[in-house]
Design brief:
Length: 286
């Protein structure tokens, strides 16, 4: 495997951070990884390294998150998830990628579903992690927005110096423990996220419109798709993933036992085995 090559590329007015993991001299299929809300591509790196024998893996930070910093000049782009799907299409065009396999998580999986509906010709197969169908509840959504606003507003860099902050921050996301450096990296990414991007995507991820359109988007996916849920996920409970999978015979559903919202980190061996079996590559890791 070659050393990762981090770079910046201008996509729709924003310098996007991206990196390749794998040997680009080998003619391997490309797998593109999309991260979730408040995170960055960093938490996908170990998964990408594990799959780099079979794929050239492209990791990038979504607009306004991680190292994809917004410019000082205001953009005309909105924070609707369809716009993030268009960002991905533009990124692929800039990198001369005609087709790829998508591996997307949480908010990134919602972006991927929209992208797959808009550009089905650009994707052979897809892996969607910790996503699904939810029902609209006006009071619950209002409470979620209020809480989300506080979460985004009260972010201070000094939190990084408070002992066990990363452990408390990640407690709701995890069922099994993950290494402290991984938890700390996620806290760093959360503190780094652009305020406007973080706040606006809370509303575009979870709203009445999403409730109305996402079932149809899942039902229309034309390519083989693996939908993975964590059995103990408190953010996107597995029943939401099962509902989405039931809408389309192209979707294969997998539930990883005793994991929360990050099954790829909490039980990497089982996660990789499921992905490899779905893609029909290599030998499953045990």
């Amino acid at each position: 495997m070659q050393v990762p090559s981090p770079s910046l590329i201008l996509v729709r007015g924003v310098e996007h951070y991206y990196e390749w993991i794998g040997d680009r001299t080998r003619n391997l299929p490309v797998m593109i990884f999309l991260h979730g809300w408040g995170g960055s591509a960093r938490y996908w790196r170990n998964t990408a390294i594990a799959l780099s024998d079979e794929f050239n893996c492209l990791l990038y930070d979504l607009r306004g998150f991680g190292r994809s910093r917004l410019p000082q000049t205001p953009l005309e782009l909105s924070y609707e998830l369809e716009e993030y799907a268009e960002d991905l299409a533009a990124l692929m065009a800039e990198l001369n990628l005609d087709r790829a396999i998508l591996n997307a998580h949480s908010m990134g999986a919602s972006v991927a579903v929209l992208f797959l509906n808009l550009y089905p010709e650009k994707c052979d197969r897809a892996i969607l992690n910790c996503t699904g169908i939810f029902e609209y509840d006006e009071k619950a959504f209002a409470a979620f927005y209020q809480f989300g606003g506080y979460v985004v507003k009260f972010r201070y860099n000094w939190l990084m110096k408070v002992p066990f902050t990363e452990q408390m921050f990640m407690a709701r996301f995890l069922h099994r423990p993950i290494p402290k450096p991984d938890k700390r990296a996620f806290l760093e990414d959360y503190l780094l996220a652009d305020r406007e991007a973080a706040l606006e995507t809370i509303f575009t991820c979870v709203n009445q419109r999403a409730v109305e359109i996402m079932p149809e988007k899942f039902s229309r996916l034309p390519m083989p798709t693996l939908l993975i849920s964590g059995e103990k996920d408190k953010i996107i409970p597995p029943e939401m993933g099962r509902k989405a999978a039931e809408l389309n015979e192209k979707i294969e559903y997998c539930e990883i036992p005793k994991t929360g919202h990050f099954p790829m980190l909490e039980d990497a061996a089982t996660y990789l085995r499921s992905v490899r079996e779905f893609l029909g590559v290599g030998r499953a890791l045990v």
